[in-house]
Each structure stands twice: as structure tokens, then as C-alpha cells.
Amino acid sequence: MSDAESPTNPTLTPDAQTDDFEAVDVFAESTDMDLRPGADNCYKCTACDVSCPVAEVDDEFPGPKFQGPEQWRLKRKDDAAVDDSIMSCSNCMRCDDACPSGVPLSQMHNTARGEYVDEEMDKLSREYVRNRILANYGTLAQLGSMFPRLTNAVMGNSVVQQINEKVLGITAERDFPEFATQTFREWWNERGGPQVRSEEKRVAYFHGCYSNYNTPEVGKAMVRIFESFGYEVVVPKQRCSGTPMFANGMLDDAKRAAGINVENFSGLIPEGYDIIASCTSCSMSLRQEYPELFDINGIEDLSAHTYEALEYLRIHEDLESEIREASVSDQSFAYHAPCHGRNQGLDRQAVELFRELDGVNIEDVGDSCSGISGTYGWKEEKYDKSMQIGSDMFDHMEHAEGNVGMTECPTCSMQMEHGTGYDIKHPLQLLEEALV
Amino acid sequence: MAITDDVLVVGGGIAACTAALSAAETGARVRLLAHKKSTLRQASGLVDVLGYIGDGGPSADPFDALDSLPADHPYHVVGEDGIRDGLRIFDEAVGDTYRGGHTDTNALVVTYGGTVKPTARYPASVATGLASSTGDMLLVGFEGLTDFDAPVAADHLTASGVPFDVRGVTVRYPKSFRSDAKVTRFAKALDRDESVSGGTVRSVLADTVAAEMDGQTRVGFPAILGDDHDEEVRDELADRLGVPVFEVPTGPPSLLGLKLEDMLFDALDDAGVRISSGNPAVDFEANDGRIDTVLVDQKSRLTPYEADQIVLATGGLVGKGLDSDREQVTEPVFGCHVPHPEDRYEWSDPEAFGDHAFARFGVVPDDELRPTGEDGEPHFENLRAAGGVVGGADVAREKSASGVSLATGAVAGRLAGEEATQ
Amino acid sequence: MNKSPSVLVIGGGSTGTGIARDLAMRGLDVTLVEKGNLTHGTTGRMHGLLHSGGRYAVSDQPSARECIVENRVLRRIAGHCVEMTGGLFVQRPEDSDEYFEKKLEGCRECGIPAEVLSAEEAREVEPYLAKDIKRAIKVPDGAIDPFRLCVANAASAVEHGARIETHSEVTDVLVEDGEVVGVEVTHQTGSGPYVHGEPGTVEEIYADYVVNATGAWAGQVGDLAGVDVEVRPSKGVMTIMNTRQVDTVVNRCRPKGDADIIVPHETTCILGTTDEEVEDPEDYPEEGWEVDLMIDTLSELVPMLKEARTIRSFWGVRPLYEPPGTGTEDPTDITREFFLLDHESRDDLPGMTSIVGGKLTTYRMMAEKISDHVCEKLGVDSECRTADVPLPGSEDFSVLRDYMDDFNLRSPIGRRSVQRLGSRADEVLTSVDPNPVVCECEAVTRAEIRDSLETAGTDLNSVRIQTRASMGNCQGAICCHRMANELAPEYDEETVRASLDDLYQERWKGERHAMWGEQLSQTALKHMLHVTTMNRDGDPATVDKDIDFAAFDDGSSEGGDAAGASSDSAVADGGQKRRAADDEHEGGADGDN
Lengths: 436, 422, 593
Description:
Chain A is α/β, with parallel strands linked by helices. Chain A contains 23 helices and eight strands. Chain A has four domains: about 35-120, Alpha-helical ferredoxin (Fumarate Reductase Iron-sulfur Protein, Chain B, domain 2); about 125-165, no CATH class; about 180-315, Glutathione S-transferase Yfyf (Class Pi), Chain A, domain 2 (Up-down Bundle), CATH 1.20.1050; about 325-435, Rossmann fold (3-Layer(aba) Sandwich).
């Protein structure tokens, strides 16, 4: 029954993980972190502010410098008042990418947001309930994918969408992502788990919610590629990486999920496994936000062993030569680098690699944010701003040669599709086509 | 497997971009390894080559003055040819979005402090507002933007003896933002010509300013006139006002600097330079006096990058290419020697605008721009330096920051590329 | 009606402004003269500690008792200047148990509430305390803003009819017939013209009585009157951190020593201090080792201080005094008590009293005693009311509301503004629209700057101390010129520029003591911003050199197309080097290739 996968040490897999699994006291409540010292690094250059896609379109948003180092520096320990504009931050983390001085901006934002939600937000408000639902997409998806066809039909129904907007504040402009008829994990179990065994080359796959429930083809591509390079792939049981929870200040939810993920993955590291994610927000979360926000045994180790899939192959294999020798049928892509990928220094790698692939024309559609930022663009009051932020990207996509989009991020891909009507592929899908 | 190239340029500012473009011209396979956003975003977007020497007034011709620079000035290493090569690479990269290339002579540009300063290249949006051209001027500031006070700037210009009349007014921006809205918001509203009561942002702004005009033949605004569609914004305002419209470069946040950064990165893409950004180079592996591998801290894990030649263009104290503590000043990536007085109180002058030693801090280049140790010998055979990390010039007082970056970038990049492709 | 007796107070520190307020409230006709800003001397150069008395509980119990009394008074009358942080006397393993016990006992003897905390409890209060501390004593120390305190005292004095003259230096004490009858002041002639008095003019101010409240400078004023006042000025360094590593006053629990206190002050922590006798209160060495000592020693209590960013250091001079013949060698042994020197009984010179010694926490009590003394001399029968009537800004300070919504300010900005303005917040923050933030580091809005200008005139340093603008981590890199801009249009551009230069130089002076690490990067950015981007060092308006504007590029490479802007370019063109670029595009790439 269990779809957990941990071939060498079955005890690593906690059995019977139900949804009401509560992280034990090992990770006791201590989210009131004092980040004031982080303001020491800020020298007011405003590189963060001019990088902020929300500040460009939202008159009410004072920008990351205020939200981060300034607000923190002005704090006294017992001050509770976090400015409510923190909820307008989309958590794209471009400020992190911009800051030349190492200010822990997104950590400051995440922590302040957590504090705001905890202490100042009405837990019965529509906004809170809506955010909680959006933040827990994984749970929602788990339910939805039990009866994927029915769910797709219901969620695609415009009446339901209107109700969602009116009652919950979830925009009716967007179509809910369709659930796959077979989840990635169902496929994985059906094929009988790993097809390649290796003592030296081992990876544990963090597929995240979206590859599992919505785009299992990405996960399948990842498995096939890695197996073609001789890697043993395992797929431990896992929960949401936490990204949408951070963005909504639901740090308790995120911590619970993190506790499970750390427990299930970090034990594999001594066995020689590295952790691979196909979603750049998932890898971002495991690498950066986990150790920044939570003090959980093994979390640093997990962070240091997590890679994005393409990045891993670039470092560990001669991927470039392989690609140079391969070819695919002629196709053109408009590539968008997701913000969270940019933050990990991965924004250029897809274009750099696929430029060398025979038959492929790939064009970077510029460095603007797609505007959806996970759950941000799903909120009724943010929808217009989300589309304004994305307008540069839509423009560039339409001017690009191809009419297929490409990105690593599931929500960016929703936005790309929503704004242009293009089909969107994940780089792993093209890589699979080229190499497997 | 490390990620491998011929030339690895460490840094992401104007010097690094120039070095990468210069190296790419030699046919080398080049990678730019940038950490975070560069100091271009804090700078005005002007490209100074040399504006002042000693206590003299502003120099009209930067090339005339080269010989009078101190002996250890990096311009002596690269020579006039190096400077001209740097400017050529720059001019090619930015095309007609920048002006000043038609002459060797410096222009005097109006700054947001109301002063004028000599510069060699300036954005097209600045061109009609030069203080070294005539034509009466109206400067326009906005109520919520405290950085630029147009009436004060106008009076300041008058006190500088500019050869025209200038008046400043403060107006309300047509769209009411909260007072802490970012300049990018102001620019975006003009870009998209958002609607406001009485018309659109552009039309209402033009109407507001037209009411203030009194025979002036040009109108200047702080540099917020659009981002992606800046030319269109200027043209429309000029059209409605019937006189040319220009921008006054600002300090941070600097949209002009931001745009320059974008253009340089576009030029890198066009030149086929690979770019890895977002993570810092922190360490290296060397053998027999050559650097083999540069190690990049990719979120608590080191990723190796290999190259035949390395260019260090990580910037100075502002760009964090130089680090310091109470005892010493260091170059943190390769540990190159940075000479400095032992007593930290000698790092600066008691006068705020005095001759500060810190302004000249940096590595000491040999005649091939290789950083040298205390013994005067290069640290590594295949490591060159460019831009702010190179010491010897007080680029702030001289108004030579971009010039030094362009010139050292061009020469270091070319030498690295030639060496790698030999 | 008889004219009220007139009193002239010299010195605009806490004591002087306190006396001015007290006497004005008693109905006397008071004039206060100060050679610089209010707080220019020692008051503006203290660590901001509101003593509980704990520091003196072993060595100087009379001072300790006064402190705890006044501590309670100030919380009542100066709520908007005080932050009740609480204080800890922290014992490290190497510190003596005996002293710890004596401290505890001393506190109790002096009526200072004191509670022993285990190491764990202390670290719960202050998580960044060293892991190996032994235990701590908790006392009601607090933080006080001396600037706001003096400004509020002065404002209250003015409300009661006093005249406050800053930037007016006493250049002579007028003695007629063996009696002090007034002073001669010279109004400021410095680089910036100030609003008080005509710059450069000399004014004789007569008064029925003169109070010399110049602290460390009392000897110099005494000299002018021909009397000896043996002040023993003692300097102490204070190093300001960029952020608050602690929110409680942290003292080292050991007998007197250097570098034993960290005071959370506004957005910063202040590390202090040293105690070293100096000859001249205005001319003494400020040295790096003193700063190093603060960081190195205090990081034994709070280890993160070692790597934390300091933004500046400053030195203050204590106005220590001891009666002639006491002969104490070590200034740390000199009493912190204050002395009232009646020059009539002491030197046979009626008409003047000097006050020396003492400390900020007890300024009000000192002022009360001096005022009693002056009233007695002048035959005025009037009660002191300063212990009961709140200072302007501290009335009804308990009524804190949701200020950010009221003033359309972000909550931390609204909160900081209200913490500074107290009950004046409403009046000030609604006075300007739009009300942008001028100093981002310290969250100071235009309204607050403009409000402070009413008393500051063109003196931006006074604006600074009233509002804290330019006192944050960028040390004015971003906001100095914005502050100066607020002087216009009331003052002309030349005045704006001169005031900016003064402020800039003042910032530089203290910042130089912090120039390494992050602050050196900050300084380098500031330098680039002001020197490169704004060309303030080579500013032709200031530098005495005429520019031949025509010798520079006028932007025209193609005849008259650069519009009206270059219509004169043909004749103005003085450069022979200019190429006649007649190609259609003027981009350099076209020109050079």
C-alpha cells in the first residue's frame, strides 16, 4: 500500500503518515527570530527596490528594503506591529538575488510575514482562510486527484469559479490546473520503483506537489534521464516543500511539512544520496528557506545536498557534450527563467545548454518576473497586478520565434499559458527527448 | 566535472562586462560569473573618463590630462589606447542609447544635487540637458520625491555660472501614489501611460509642466521618465511641451544605471558570453602559480568552474570586491595583496571631501594587469584584474570610475582572451 | 506691576535647560545662552542611560538614592524621552561573587528594586548574552534621549516666557562694582548663518543673576569672571552599533572598569565607556584603541558585538569636580555628586553661581536645587513644579493609538514617529501633505523635519538631534541633502548648501571612527554618491574657479538638431578637437568605427 521508497533502509520511512501527522516537539515553537543583525549588511543601495516586480505596479507596496532591513532595524523586541504591506510581497525573492550585500531579505520578509499572520491577522477572515487553502495546495491536490476527472470538471466550471472568487477571493480569471489521471507516484509504483541500482550514483527525487498531481510527465522525464545516466533514483514519501506556505505566512504549516521532509530525506544522505528537485521553488525551499527559518535536526545537511535536476547533471556529468551530440526535431522555445531559479543561479542554464542542441531554437524572454509568484496571482485582489507584472514576459514571448514556452516552475508555466495560450514545457522534457 | 570555459570573468559590473566582451572578441569562450546586482544600479549611468586632476577645475579633455596622473594610476598601465579601446567596446555595446562618442571633449551634465560634472558618455535622455549647452532650462521635481528639489537645483546651477537661465518648480505627480512608492512605479506609470483624471499620466504631466513654462527651451525631470518605453515617454512629453525633454541622473535608485546594466548584459548575450549569476566566487584551486578552478558558493555548497584565464572584476569597497576589518584590507576571493596604511585612521582624511586613502585601495597590477604580491611579482600567471578592485586611482575625485573600469576591463579581457586562445 | 527678576543661564545642556524651565515656571524672566546647539557639550555626548542607581549602589550610595528617585520622576514627566528597557548587571565566571552580593545588597539599601536572575533567565531576557555568564541582577535601568529631553525643557521654558539663544558664545562675564551683572555673547559667525541673533554681532545681556551651567566648561566661564572653578574634565568613549543587539541595559557586574555597559538607545546600542582625565574639554585625542577596547571587552558579555557593525563613535567629557584639596588621583574615584558653587560666599563675587559635577539622570533635581538657591538670592518665593508637570510631548503619553492609520504612515514609521514626538504626534504628523520619509534608516518624515526647523533655524545638526534623521546606518549618505532641501524655499540655496556642508562634516567626524567592514563599504558608497554622482567636492558653485562652459561638449554633433538646447553651439564651441560629425546618428559606435 505504501508508495514510499527507500530501498536500503526501510525504517527511514515513517509509516502510516496521515495528513494529521503532527511534527513532534523536536521542532518546538520558536519562530520569533531576531533578524535585526541582518540589517548590518544593508547600505541602502536600493538594488532590491528596483528589482521588485510588485513595487513597479503596486502603489501601496513600499518595497523590499523597507520590508526587510529597515522594518527590522526599527523593531524593538516586544514590538508586535508589522506593517500590513508585508502581505503584498509575492515572495518572488528577486530582492535576494539583487542585494549585493548579503542582507537576508527574503528571510526577513518570511519571518515578518509569519509574525504578521500569527499576531495581527484575523484567523476567521476570508483572507486568512483563502491564504491557508492556497498555501496548502498539496492537501487540496491530494483530495482533487482522487477523482481527477470529476475534480477537473467541477473546477473548470465557471459557476464554481465565480463562487470561489466571491466566497474565497480566489480569482475566477484563472483555470485551475488540471489533475493528471495518474499521479507520478502511482506511475512510479506501477513501474515498480527504480529500474537502475547503483552504489555510487544515487539520487532521491523531490517531485513536489505539482509534478505529482498535475504534470507527472516532468517527473517521469526526470527519472528516465537520471536512470539513463546510470543513477539509482528513489522517491521518498514527501510533503509540500513549503513555498506557498512561506508566501502566505503560514510558518507552522510549513514547519510541519519541513519536519516530515527532513526526516524522510536527510537519512538518505549518509547512504550516498543527493536530493534532486525538478521544481525550482522546491529546490529553493529546501536549500535556502529551510535552514533560514527552521531549526530541525538534519536540515542543514539536507540543504547542502539538494540540487535542481539540470544543475546536478551539469556539475556531475558532461551534459554539454551529450547534448552537442544529440538532436531533436526542429522546435522553438520561449524560455522564462523563474525567479526562484534565478536565485539559485540557474536562470541561464537551460538556454545555455539547449542552444547547443541540434534542432532547437531557444530564446530567453527577458528577466522580468512572470507575475504569478505561486499563490500571489491566484488572489482575486492581486490578479490584475499579477497580469501587469507578467505583461513584459507575455510581450517578449509573443515576439519570440517559437510558440512553445519553457520554464522550470509550475506556477510560472500556468501564468505563461494563461497570458499567451502557449503550451509550456519543462526543460527536463526536452532533455528526455534529446537523450533518452 | 566542472563547468569549463576559456576565460572566466569574476564580477558583474561595467568592468566585468567590458572584460567579457573584450575577451569574446578574441574568439575565446567566455563566462561571466556574477554574484548579485552590480553597483551600476547605484551609479548615475554616466560614463566618466577623467574630469578632474588635482585641485584644478573640470577638464574639458580627459586625454589631455592623462600625463599628470600619479605614477601608480591604472591609466598608465593601459595607456590612452586602452582607454579608447574600452570606450569603443562600450559604444558598440550601447549603440545610440548613449551620446558623447562624437567627441573627445567632456560634457558637463546636471546632477541631481544641482551641481554640474564632466563626463565622457551620457544617456541619450540626458543629452539635451547638458549644462555645457545653452538654452534656458526648466527643472521639474515632484512633491513626494525628496531626492531632487528642482528649485534648489536650479539655484545651485545658477550659482555655478551656467550659461543659461534656469528655474525649478515642484509639481504633484499626476497619479497619486503613497509617498513611499518606488521610482520604478513612477516610471512604470509613464511607460504604460496609465489613465488618471483629466487624461493620462503623460498628458496630465505635460499640461502641469506647460503651465509652469515661461519661455524655457528645455525641460528636465529626475530620471524616472519611463523604463522599457523611455524614448516614447520623452518624445511624447517633448511633443506636448514643444521643447526637448531631458533627464537628470539620480543616485540610488538609479533607473539609468539599471538600464545600462541591462544593455551590457544584452551585449554579453549577443557576444555569446555565458553568464552564471546569483552566487559568489569564494575560493579557488591553484597549481604551479596558475589558478585551475574557481569555487562558487551555491547556497552552502561549492560548485567548481574551470578556465584557462581568469579576470577578477569584483569591484572595490562598494562592490565588495575588497573587504576590510579593523586591522586590514583584503581581496577576499584570491587573497591578492592590497596595500594600505597600518593605522586605520590613516585610511581616511579628516575632511569629508579630502584625499582619502580608502578611495585608492585595491590590488596592484603589473604591466599585464596581473595583481602582484608585496614582492611585486604577479600572484598567479593567469589572473588579471579590472575595475574597482584595481587600486591606485581616486576615481571619485577624478571622476574616472567608469573610464578606469572600461579601460582595465578592455585590456584585461583582451590579454586573457589572447592567452587562452593561443 | 514689578518686572520679574531676570536670570541668565549659561549652557544649553540638561542642567541649563532644566534650570531655565524651572525658573521660567516660577515666573522669572529667563534667558539661556548656549554656544552651540542645545546639548552641544556633555549632554549630547552621553550614553543615554537613565540610571536606576544600580551603578552607584556600591561606590556612591547618595548618588544611587538620588538616581532611583529621579528615575521615577522622569518616567512620569518625560515619558516620550524615556524607554524603560530594564537593566541587568551580568556576572561572568571570572567576576567576583563578593562584589555581586555587595551590588545586590547596595541596591536594596538604596531602595532600588533588584532581582537575581539565573544565567538561563538572563539569557531568556537577552538571548545574545554570552553562554557562559554566571547570573545577573535585574534593575530598573532605562534609556533616555538627552536631545529630546533638552529640547523639551527648552520648549517648556519658552512656553513660560524664556528666551533661548543657541549659537551664542559667552565671550565675557560682565562684572560691575565687584558683582556679576550679565554677560557678553558673540553670536555665531561660523560657516552657516543661523537664525538666532545677527551673525558676528556682540550683545551684552544684563541680568539680576547669572548661572554658570556649562559643566566641563565651567572653569572657562569662571576664568572670564575671574574665579577659579576646578573642573576635572574626564573623557569617555562611546561606540554606536548599527542595530540593537540587546533591548535591556547590560552592565558588567564588577567594580569600576572601562567598557562595562551596553545601552540600547533608539535604534542602536551604545557601548561605553572609558574614564580618562583631559586638560581641555574641547581638545583631546580620540583614538582607535579606545573603540577597540569597547568592542573587545563588551563582546565578553555579548559575543556577537565582535563582528557587528558599528556606525560611529564619539567622546563625551564629564564635568567632574572635587572640592579643592581632595586630591583624588584616578578620575573614576571622583564623586558623581554635583556641587553648587556660590561665588559670593566662595569667592566674594556676588551675582553668579556655578554648578558642576552631577549626571543627566538627576538633572532635574540639580536644577531644582539651583533654582531654589537663585530664588532665595533674589528673594522670590515660589515652589518648584518640574517634578509634577510633564514636559511638552509627554502629556497624556499613555494614550497610544493605532498611529499608522491615522497618519497614513507604515506602522514602524508611525510607531517611531510617535515614540519621538509623544503627545505632539498628531499636531506634527498632520501638518504636511504629502509626507514622505526623508530619512529611511530612522523613519523620519518631512513633517517631523519641518517641525524641528522651527527651533533649529538653518542648523541641520539641530534637526538631526531632534529627529534622529541621518543618525542611522548610512550616516546621512542618502538623506543629508534631502534634509537640506527642506530648508528651501524659506532659505536661499547658498544657505541650504552651507548647512548641508556643516551637517556633512559633522557626520564624517564620528563616522571616521567606524570605518572598516560594512561601514567602510557604506562610506565608500557615500563617497561615490556625493563625490562621483553629485560632484560635491568639485562643485563649481563652491570651488572658486570659473568654468569655460563653451569648452565642453554641448551635445551637438549634427548641427542644430539638438533643438533649442544647442542653438548657440556654433559660436559657443570652443573645442578644436570636436569632430564635425555630420552623420545622421550620433552614437559613438558610428562615430568611432
